[in-house]
Amino acid sequence: MTAATPVANARMYSVAPQVRADWKTLLAWVLERAGLPWPVIDHDAPAPLNVLWARSDLGLVMMCGLPFAQRVRPGQNAVPRPRLVAAPVPSPARYQGRAVYFTDIVVRADAPARTLEDTFGGTVGYTLADSMSGGVALRHHLAPFHAARGGRLYTRAAGNLIHARGVIEALARGEIDVGPLDSYCHDLLALHDPAFASQARTVATTEARPIPPLVATADTGEHAIAALRAALKAAIAEPSLAAVRERLLLADFAVPEASAYAPLADLAEQTIPPFEEL
User: Whole-prediction pTM value?
Assistant: First the structure.
């Protein structure tokens, strides 16, 4: 049987039509430079990202750091097992030239809340319980407040908001009082859809954590991985991609060790109350 042709996709950070188009342009350039005739596929919302990540033909696809960390843990026999190709380095100053991101904790722009503590007693929203930026990171950030209070912080929780847009839309409708945004998504939305992004205001930000990487699950071989990494680096210096990089808020690509993501899996296993008990 002939192996399936590997595919590329950047759905995780395709937060607006222009961003989606720019990621496709950049990935197509990288694949051509690497000499790999792989397609850049669509996997748009509402198609679940975990369906994409379960595929065994991923050649260059963005994956949330949490499932990546869980699948590459020592002793884990996950199939397909992802391999880290590279990780984006966002250009805004707060990333300090590192392949990291944060969770911005936001309220509606016209809300009276000025601090995270001001949101206690309201409704907390989250994207998916098993999302790092949209679930686990927020729960971990709230846990010390919950312990200090000795009881619930919020009267209600609303989940399955799916992505950053879902959180902002829920805030705008008054369905939640506070929610999490992947900071890179947040920055991209602020640049490309400022009217939409301005409906939310940040009241707290979590600590930095390793940013979702580009991974491969297909048996691409060492040569292909090396070619992809070289092409990603070349894309950062390519003059014809300057405007694309600027619109993507992209400064570089790094190649962190897979072990850098291990703390994310450890974090998810900590005993922290679920949102419905926070």
Answer: 0.95
